[in-house]
């Protein structure tokens, strides 16, 4: 495949799209006020190897520019390797986005703000303060939270009006430079919150934690059952709300931003997590016919949800597909643009539930499987989430060596670390076909149980039980995607790309994915790791109303395959538990 | 004037309207499905003295019926005295309404309900429970409070859907016969709550109390100031919300109704009370240019306001006119149909604030004055609100005799009792022109202060200070309405009717109004007492969406006269403090 190089970063690409699109996919932001329609002439870049120039493109460029290698990115369709550099004034608009794989979006958040000067009422005008406000901002609903802000606003006179989808939700009694939003992934096991500037789209900080609902059950089914116990639903609801409020505190302190200035939170999560966050009984998700209470995207008052944000702030829950393909997966499809006609692509979100979506030239079908929390570092003796001190990569070649998040002392294993261990023990023949640890240098038998001792103090060990947990997760995901391929009459050879998403931090390696057998080795060159697409997709919806529309449309386009009723599935699952499986 | 007699009750009327309208004004409910359009023929009544029968009316009646004296009330236009009795089947629809002077309304509350049967979801329908619900009830907003009710509703299957203005707000997991609403008057000094059936319009019970905000100031101005103190606004807000929740408890227990079945509260009150109830800082009401934060009618979530009612229940705050002509007065205009062309009418709402509206053939102008809480039984040594044990009438002829609410031992004086005392001391010459108590049989001098001892134990006394308080209230109201008349170039002779509203219970006498000098004696025959029109008008809005529309329209039709800037007002006020005043 040909490659593009930009400021030291190189990525490969499939010819076809314009250079503008290709740069954006490489996370390079190019100013393009006309949206790539070839009318504004602003997306000039310096290109080495861009191929022939069309007549249309020429009309925007001087002879000197053409000679210097300037191209209009939206009208340039490269075929081979090329090097791109910023050009002239446009340079200021070129930035490498900080966060994960996010396709280009127009910065058009649901929340907007503008400075206004309120009039001074007179004795004879006979107007209410709300009437005066409307003379400045146009018709708006008289919500209680807005009414409560009006007296102070009229004392200040120069205020900032904050709107959500055109409805004024707050009046800040001063001028402000920026407002903020939150992109949130509420996973069954882990929760991540990112603070985002609504005027630049820049991520100002992120914080994560274990979902405190784990105390009520490690997977969605046990939590659904717990909702039937006395006070169970409310206990789980308040646990996650308290957790989110705490994470918001953390990102706000770190970024020195007042939480009063946060006006929207966009949330991606599975249907059970959504129900529990909103205090909706999840019972219907736990038994046939597995109906979610709601599938569409929801805009709700943050206060009603229990979140302490800015006055009148909203929560946007992304739309979901079904009980087991939630809004986190819609977020993933949004990020990977899975509805687009770009060959046959497989999207796998590895979490406590594994969800798999197959895109056959944009036609979408899906399945889900219960992987368990092992690959998120839970229910594993030395497991932890991907945060400081977590071992995220492991080599057992000769001696034990770790890559540790934050470069500090290793205190536990996160998902990618556990996958690496599995990959290494398979590679080094330290386990048999069934996953049983063989005797060997690092292997210790103690209290009748066998374990692999990676570090003595603090102890980092992998027990036989831990290996079983990962094996089960692997079996569930592998059998899921093989079933989905088979149902569509496809083989692994037909796949153009395998997109992996999950809470793995930034260092999930292709080697550990294939080495552990989670993804068959033959797909090695087609794997791309996309990071936490639930969070990234939530961020897209936070920042772009058109992304939000795309999400609503995407959610309606996905077919669902129920694995449990599939003939031969149990046999396939049993085979997928074994190592070196192929089909 | 000719009179109508119905089941022992007689009232006079001005010829012009149909008998249907005249009966309704006399609080007689007549079934009339077509709304009085002369098409359904259902409003048959037996009439003695109804005058000639039109050809149109004849087409609905048999010869026998005409011979028996049957008339169609909507097509009968009486001119003289007549006697009306129920007729045939229609008899069942004829009831005398229990509550105050309420003009006819169509029973069309904002809250409606209907039984529905929810479908059983299947594995292959791919719908959410909300989708299924919408297939039964049509498009509706996905509010959080509704979503939380869906799981239980689908378990019950046969449910009652409750709507507010067409938006579904609750799903009750059973069939129900009736739902309820609350008509509320929040006065500066007293609060009254009535529980009303939404399907019959019948009042099921009422409860009242002193407004607990009195601890923060006796009049609106002192409460507005208190809102500036630390926590002051929230203290006052939570005091009135707690009080209302308590009164709702009381009426629900008394009527054996679950508060979960109450879906709307309609509230009439002055602009300051509205601000304090809603937690909106009232500062702008307390200083020029006296702008209210909001004037329009508000539909707010009861939960957001802090009231514990049915799931998704709403609060409707009636529209107001200005800072000092609040929604309580709009309610009063609604009840008295003040915008109609029925001559020159004066409406006076006697409360801690006195508000006066003049209708010149439907053209409305208003003024307001600070009367103080004396006429509501507050700030008076033995004062109390009009409830059990309150002296509501007093005669000092020879000996002291009381009329006591509930027929129990007298424990204090309510507004009408105090007015009666004043009326009596004036009539018997026990006070001078300035209001000073003269020496006499009931008058005692003690600790340098003079007082009238009406009962020894429990002591019921009226001090010289109490008389001053009532005198001030009287002076404020009297000077207010005289100023308003003068501003419009009218004299008392021009007035066709004086409508008195207030929290006086049901026994305010014309004698005490004129005897105390609150209303000049020459208006004696034109006075009509309308009761607590703030509560009654709220009830109309609760029960009728068209009444709500009328209220919104009325609120925009009223001119306001600011007394304090009027030349000669202070002189007039001083004159009005004296007894036997005339102008």
Automatic annotation (TrEMBL), chains A, B:
The lineage, from the top, is: Bacteria, Thermotogati, Synergistota, Synergistia, Synergistales
Organism superkingdom = Bacteria
- Start and end residues of each 2Fe-2S ferredoxin-type domain: 2-90
Entry protein name: Uncharacterized 2Fe-2 and 4Fe-4S clusters-containing protein, contains DUF4445 domain
What Gene Ontology molecular-function terms does this entry list?
A: iron-sulfur cluster binding
SUPFAM superfamilies registered for this protein in UniProt: 2Fe-2S ferredoxin-like
What's a Pfam family this protein contains? Answer: Raco_middle
Organism from which the protein derives: Dethiosulfovibrio salsuginis
